[in-house]
Structures are given as C-alpha cells and as structure tokens.
Amino acid sequence: QTPLFSGYGPQCPVDLARLPCFRPLLGALGGFWRALQRGREGRTMASRAFDPPPGRSVTAGIIIVGDEILKGHTQDTNTYFLCRTLRSLGVQVCRVSVVPDEVAAIAAEVTSFSSRFTHVLTAGGIGPTHDDVTFEAVAQAFGDELRPHPELEAAIRALGGKGWAKLSLVPSSARLHYGT
C-alpha cells in the first residue's frame, strides 16, 4: 500500500515511499498533510475524508510552520506546491498562514482554521529537532495528548534513528493512512 504522503514534493526530491522501511513513517506524517477537522462528537482530528454539506465547496487552510521562513532564511515552496495540488483536486484554498515554531502560535492557528475550513494542512515543524513542535501543537489544538505510535516506533528503530525517536510521538487520536 502507498501512504497518502509519499515524501515527494518540492522540498524532497527523492520518493521515499519506494523504500519499504519509510512507508509507516511517511504514512503517519501524511496524516498531518491530511485534513484536520471539527468532528461531530467534538473537536477531533479527522481520520477520513470529509464531505461538505450540499451546496458548499470543499475548502482548505494551509499553515506553514517555521522560524526559518519568517526570518527569510528559507524560501517557502510548500505553499505553491500545496495550492496547485489542492486546486487540481477541486479544493478551494482560502487562506495560507506562516507561523513561528511556537506551540501556542501553531495551536491557535490550527484551532482557528479547523473551525473555518473543511481541511487544515500543515507543512513544517515535524522533524527531530527541539524546534519541531507541530505534533505537540496539533495535539494541544484538539485537546489531545502525545503518545508513542507503535508502528512509527518500529519504523524508526528499523532506520536506526535514535535521534528521531521524537517522531513516534503523535496525538493519540492520529492514525496511519495508507492508500487513498
């Protein structure tokens, strides 16, 4: 099965999904590219596609995370890639926001966007370093907690990534998404 996010895009010139050991890791990361939405039972992370009410279009808000973007050290290529891809899928991108690597700022934007748009996508802030706090912020925005995910832990161990163990900590309601 192919994960939703293959790891191939403007900032990743190699299709990491072709490497079997990366598939569980990339599948889980795809969950953060996938929609975050307000669930029927309360504020929850989506685990499936969302159909808007009749007569309403599918909308998206994109949150780009990174001090390096705000300081002008790195050019944001994710916005162009995501807007172009979403538009080709019939999704109307309504807003793009760039936020610093701060849990409170990211969580506030996720909370705001999740109440206004069908889908919320994040890009950035999910690596192994101390300033990569997007997972924590998304959990906070949805009143969730971070927990190690068994499949991610296994994938990280298989890669020999001791320094990457932080990547196995995801919101407890997050699910791996393979395929469509």
Automatic annotation (TrEMBL):
It comes from the Eukaryota. GO terms for biological process: organophosphate biosynthetic process; phosphate-containing compound metabolic process. It holds the Pfam family MoCF_biosynth. InterPro entries: CinA, MoaB/Mog-like_dom_sf, MoaB/Mog_dom. Residues 61-175 form the MoaB/Mog domain. In the N-terminal section; belongs to the MoaB/Mog family. This is FAD1 flavin adenine dinucleotide synthetase homolog (S. cerevisiae). The gene is Q5T196.
